[in-house]
Predict the 3D structure of the following.
Amino acid sequence: MSDHAVSRRAFLRAGGAVLTGTLASTSGVLALIAPSTSWALELEALDAHQAATVLQFTRHVFPHDRLDDAVYALVVKDLDAGAAEDPTTRRMLTDAVRRLDEASGGEWLSRSAAEQFVQVQAMEATPFFAKVHSTAVVSLYDNDMAFAHFGYPGRKGDPGYIHRGFNDLHWLPDPPDGASGPVPETA
């Protein structure tokens, strides 16, 4: 048993929380690479409400309608780990969730997407917004689930990277005649 192993009894006694979800589609790209259609994230510092709020906040900062919550949960995982290590980060995250709830006159999560977005915009200049944004830039996009969702063929440096989709930009319009730069090969 490793030093990080925690028994279920110890976890529950410590008041641990879990953020859970189910893949929105069992026929999508994520379903092909996911080991299960359900997922759970064990939280160290945040409670389930705080984690769900941070997840939804992140969805507003980086909106992708068809990107599953399981990918956004990776951002929450990294923020939660940072909060577990640093009391200042933990306080910033929990205070921000409390402010969102107070500004909403209840639970921010129960508000419409438009009402939530107004609060996200109001927090744009805060350290909380900056922390979510800077964490999400890496956590949200640098993982195999995001690669599969967006059709990215793999990490730079992988064998065959250049010959495995590098020029497959079929979703971009053809460049105008006389444009400088390399012209993509057509299939």
